Amino acid sequence: MIEEQDKIKLDPKPGFVIKTKILESKETSQISTKAFINVCHDPQVPRPSDEFEPEVVFPLIIENQWEIPIVLSSVKESKDKKGFPSLVYDCCINDACFRWCQISKDLRLILIEWCIESIELINSVTLERDYSVPKMLSKGELTRTELTKEELSDLGFKKLHDLQQDETLGLVEELKLGSDEEQEEENLPSLFNIGGESAAKKPMIEEL
């Protein structure tokens, strides 16, 4: 029996929404269904052991040595604004990681790809990569999850990247960080002092 003190209850805060659709699924009724991904955040979700410094982190991502831990909710049924059925997934990350993605548009793009990949792997679906980001903080109510410390330290995200890293690596290689504007972005993390709490040593994805 799991002791009560070993359980951690997340209370995610809304961030932004990714709107896409399901292209392939074992459940044929899901094909062509709209899918919404709530990217949300909670300080209790683990974070990478290394701080986000673009000149250091992006090469590590290419080498599959740095990633943002994601807690993935179970799929939820909903409706779009026209009343048609849709599916909703919550991808919860650490607060500091969310701030990093607000500062760096390149890291935000990579995070979106990681969220899509995690949903595809765990739910055995293929999502449309031609997504949009509607002007909304969340689609419906965010899932409040309860999990153990062991579940939070699971290494599922490493498994994800072992299986599906090609698209992420291709995305990283396409990103150009040489412009003056992007160079300014690289300096922002230290100015904002977004180091935050101590990091978990290993990243993960946990389905709840």
Automatic annotation (TrEMBL):
Name the InterPro entries on file. Answer: PIH1/Kintoun_subfamily, PIH1_N
The UniProt entry's GO CC annotations, sorted and at most eight, read: cytoplasm; R2TP complex; ribonucleoprotein complex
Instruction: Give all residue intervals belonging to the PIH1 N-terminal domain.
Output: 10-149
Domain of life of the native organism: Eukaryota
Question: A single GO BP annotation from the record?
Answer: rRNA processing
Give me the segments passing through the membrane: none
Which Pfam families does its entry note?
PIH1 (PF08190)
Stated family = Belongs to the PIH1 family.
Q: What is this protein called?
A: PIH1 N-terminal domain-containing protein
Natural source organism: Candida metapsilosis
**Source taxonomy:** Eukaryota, Fungi, Dikarya, Ascomycota, Saccharomycotina
